[in-house]
Amino acid sequence: MTLFQKTFTRLARIGLREKLLFSMLAAVLFISVAIALISRYILVSSLTNELEMRGFAIAHSVAERGGSYILDNDIPKLLVLIFDEAKLRQRKDLVAYIFIEDQNNDILAHTLTHELPKNLRSNTLPPDRHDSIKLMELGGREIYDLAAGINEGLYRIGTVHVGLNKRHIDSLVGKLRVAFLGFISAVVIITIILSSWLSKYITKPVSDLTRLSDEISRGNFDIPLKLGSGEDWNAAECPAFSNTDLPCWHFDQSRSGQRPGEAHRKCADCAFYRKHEGDEVVQLGDSFRNMVWSIKLYRRRLRESEEKYRSLFDSGPDPIFVVDCESGTVRDANPRATELYGYAKDDLLGLKFLDLGPEHNADCLEYFNEGGGGCVYFPKRLHYKNGGEPFFVNMHACPISYRGRHAIIIAVTDITELIEKDAQLIQAGKMKSLGEMSAGVAHEINQPLNAIKVGSEFLSMMQEEDLDIPKEHFLQVVHEISSQVDRAAEIIDTLRSFGRKSDLMEEQVDLNQPIRAVLSMLRRQFELDNIRFDLKLADGLNPVQAHSNRLQQVIFNMVTNARDAINDISQADGNAERRISIRTGNAENRVFLEVEDTGSGIDEKDQQKIFEPFFTTKEAGQGMGLGLAITYGIIKDYGGEIRINSGKGEGTVFRMEFPAASMRGEAKA
């Protein structure tokens, strides 16, 4: 530890009174010393310059008056002149000597009583200068030697030297130093007296406040709050303290500027809020005591509020989790969470929230870790119970601060039964669709059966007539029978896949695959109805996270709806084009599917209603209006969007967009 750090540590340990005293003394001392140093510098510089100017004035005076004596070589008058100048008034203390040189640097006259030292002649005056100054030594004393030229017209006929005693200048500076030191000492003494009184006046109330703070920090809020002589505050007398439903007028309603009503008439004369007259220290004491009372009041309210919301948390019908955003662990959970997920409370606390839903919970944590604000709704998320049993939930997540850390509170609603009912509804729709497809499926299966029958009859006939069958003909017939069996099996597998119930787990699906599967069952039936398909399926399509057979249901509903629209317009116009176009492609991080028909179109007023359950424009008995509602629900489940471009009599384009499998989580969040 450095000396500065040790000094700072020691200063930090002293009391407030000593700190105030020391700080004020140091500040005043610093300012006084600074002022003294600046003043001394200015005065000393001015005094020194003034004495130097006086020396040069003497030199120039001698030079002006002694020029004629030098020309006349009148040395006695020259001596009288320099002695008069040296001894005039108080100059004898300042002027150490005066001597004159001629143009050959020979000494003409001087005021010294002994021989002129040679070192005094070292201050030579250059021809281009009129005067010069140099610090020299004479008999152990420092002397300022000032030289000035003696001119006659344009010619220099000599030089006069004036020596100033530096000791005399230093004595004057010393007197100034003593005066400044006395000034600083007086300021310091006065500062100590005032600082001591002021620090004592401030630290006494602060000591009282410190004592109260120590009691409060220990949880003792029942300390007496004395506001003055004979004034004691009894919390039991305050109606807002005994009844937390009753607001405290001073804290809850005084901002309105109105006087207390009948229920608060005692508050207007409340002794606790009676301000004492005095300076800021007295007012600080009042404010501190008011603060203590407000803490007592709202601490009581907070305790009741916490008990109320804790009871709501524990008795909630749905699971509620408190999850730490940074670590992703469960910090708290209500009893319903342990009941639904099958974990003990101790096992659930500290468990990674991702372990409850590895496929979807990461989206929730990433959203809040990346600075997302406000509450967010995450629908139809797959979670797992203790043991791995999956079930579906809806999640509402909101950011909170939990024990000083950034966290989120997540309310979970079990929607597995609703999902099952939706699945049953979709399954019923599939069964209805299978019934509608029966004629086309029967025709599709009939074709390979007929081909098999023809091939088997040919082989039987050749066997009965004992005719030889060429090897290539035999292989061709056998190969054709095998391919027709495979075709019939493919149709049956597609039909079985379409009709089976969807799994809970999603998979990555190429949109072109369910399109081809549905058309393999419907194409022939639609062609018999004189409706042709125009396919533009993009290669290298990004996969989507979905269920294949549910997407088959979507495509089946869309093409059958297109068929009905085409039949509607064909009844009015027999020459109308009967075509269904299906297009797929990639659009940035999304995959689109478009189904376009040449049908009757949709009124603008009906475009917002067609996805509602049981809404239909068909006549009674022709449909329940569930197909497009189911389609809309499936698309939304996969994070997709559907848009309609249609007008009455102009055909319809349904454009469905799904997030690519790699962007599914981000799109939902």
Could you give the topology of this structure?
Layout: H1 3-13, H2 16-72, H3 75-87, H4 91-94, E1 95-102, E2 107-110, E3 131-138, E4 141-152, E5 155-165, H5 166-217, E6 226-228, E7 231-232, H6 239-242, H7 249-253, H8 280-315, E8 320-324, E9 330-333, H9 335-341, H10 345-348, H11 361-369, E10 376-384, E11 390-402, E12 405-414, H12 416-464, H13 471-499, E13 507-509, H14 512-528, E14 532-536, E15 544-546, H15 548-572, E16 579-587, E17 590-597, H16 627-637, E18 641-646, E19 652-659, H17 664-668
Helix pairs in contact: 2-3, 2-5, 5-8, 12-13, 12-14, 12-15, 13-14, 14-15, 15-16
Q: Biggest sheet: strands side by side, in what order? A: 2-1-5-4-3
In DSSP terms (H or I, runs of 4 or more residues), the helix count works out at 17
Average pLDDT number: 77
Count of DSSP strands: 19
Report the sheet-strand fraction.
15-25%
Largest sheet: 5 strands, antiparallel
For the record, give the distance between the C-alpha atoms at the N and C termini, rounded to a whole number. Answer: 53 Å
Please tell me how large the radius of gyration is.
54 Å
Structural class: alpha+beta
Describe the structure using short key phrases:
51% helix; 17 helices; 5-stranded antiparallel sheet; 669 residues; alpha+beta
Can you offer a commentary on this structure?
There is one protein chain. The protein is α+β, with helices and mostly antiparallel strands and 669 residues long. 51% of the residues lie in helices and 20% in strands. The protein has a 5-stranded antiparallel β-sheet with strand order 2-1-5-4-3. It has a 5-stranded antiparallel β-sheet with strand order 9-8-12-11-10, with helices on both faces. Helix 2 (16-72) runs antiparallel to helix 5 (166-217) and helix 15 packs antiparallel against helix 16 (627-637). The model is unreliable at 620-626 and 665-669 (pLDDT under 50).
